[in-house]
Amino acid sequence: MALGVLALRTRTAVTALLSPPQATALAVRYASKKTGGSSKNLGGKSPGKRFGIKRMEGHYVHAGNILATQRHFRWHPGAHVGLGKKKYLYALEEGIVRYTKEVYVPSPSNSEAVDLVTRLPEGAVLYKTFVHVVPAKPEGTFKLVAML
User: SS3 sequence, 72-120?
Assistant: First the structure.
């Protein structure tokens, strides 16, 4: 009898090992977010400010037209050009835009500018770019040469 029970146990064990396992419902969890690493540089996504020259050399402008916008002084106001609150340059009269580079000689009373010039190498020259508006002569006008 013991021999029969042993044979029956081994037969059920062998059939359990050889038979395919029954399908069981297993819940497998996947990540809801894929790991992409961390990002430290989150700034810098603001749009550009559109600084720069708005009217090129030779363009005809009317009084009040903006010639250039800038954050720091890159262009300086010349003849018939005004300086706005945020360092923008605008035309005071209508005419043609001209750009010139002129040698910068600082005032001796300005200690920062004099300090900058003294630190330059021998023979170096500083230049500034000026924006001018050459007024256009309105047609139909004349210049009085002499009174009769």
Answer: CCCEEECCCEEECCCCCEEECCCEEEEEEEEECCCCCCCHHHHHHHHCC
